[in-house]
Inverse folding.
């Protein structure tokens, strides 16, 4: 779940985004496995360009931090950090 806010110049929107992240961390060793569902946060920046009616393309950097979990089977603490980029959108109009 993320919100975003920014500033538009003609067909280009420059924005920042911030929100809540959910994910599962898994550990496996010697045929045993363990998983934890973690809650963390996400933040990013991007630009979105409207190139046709209802169509836009965006480039976005997104950082996701799902915090740390203590795993019993490995006796280690694990964390997950993700980085990524995204693509093309279509908006359905309610006409």
């Amino acid at each position: 779940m993320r919100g975003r806010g920014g500033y538009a110049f003609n067909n280009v929107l420059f924005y920042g985004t911030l929100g809540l992240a959910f994910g599962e961390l898994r550990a496996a060793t010697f045929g045993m496995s363990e998983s934890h569902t973690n809650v963390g946060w996400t933040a990013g920046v991007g630009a979105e360009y409207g190139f046709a009616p209802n169509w836009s393309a965006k480039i976005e950097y997104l950082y996701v931090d799902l915090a740390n979990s203590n795993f019993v089977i490995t006796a280690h603490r694990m964390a997950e950090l993700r980085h990524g980029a995204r693509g093309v959108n279509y908006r359905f109009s309610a006409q």
